[in-house]
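Side project, low priority. Logging it here so it doesn't get lost.
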Amino acid sequence: MRFDGAGEVFMPVGEELWHNSMKYLPKSVYGSHTSWYSTGGDQLCYTARGNATEFAAMKEAFLEEMKSVVKAFPDVNNITITSEDNANWCQCDACLSEKAKYGTDSAVVIKFCNAISDMLNEWIASNNEGVPNDRNVNIAFFAYNATTEAPVYKDAVDGKYKPIDFDVICRDNVFVFYAPIMAMYNENFNSANNAFYLEMLEKWKACSNKIYLWVY
């Protein structure tokens, strides 16, 4: 692709390109907002424990950090909101309710990224802070560990995967970054040993019109 490194394609958040979700909301700054973090404390809680007031404040604080990054990297148009590098996830009632509804922890991430995308796009369109009002910023999130599964179902009529509902369809500038860590990379992706990972890819195609791949 004729670039020297990922930093030419993705903006770093707190100097991190990947596993940077908590760099947006470091505990050293926002630790008093306990509902912004998972029950285990090592991931974000993408519902703010179901507290609407805290969730609104969380999104505003998150957006402010993203705005500063967008302004600092005017020539890069991709940014990630990627989970921390562990398999843990928030076990609060709100997150568990969403998982029960969608069958996966990824639904809350999609909803959060969509909300942040809407807020960011509104700011870009109206800001007077030096960011071109027609700039497009793409947001990517990981399908990895707890969020590997897409919030989809298989249609009994046509056999195709479809999103559970409209809320888990990614915005046009929100993309999934699929990271099949356990795939067999010494075989074709459509081999029998990789059937599960290929199926996950098919599922994500129902939610996102563009997919980035993290290969190992």
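Brief comment: The CA atoms of residues 21 and 96 lie 20 Å apart.
Revisit when time allows.
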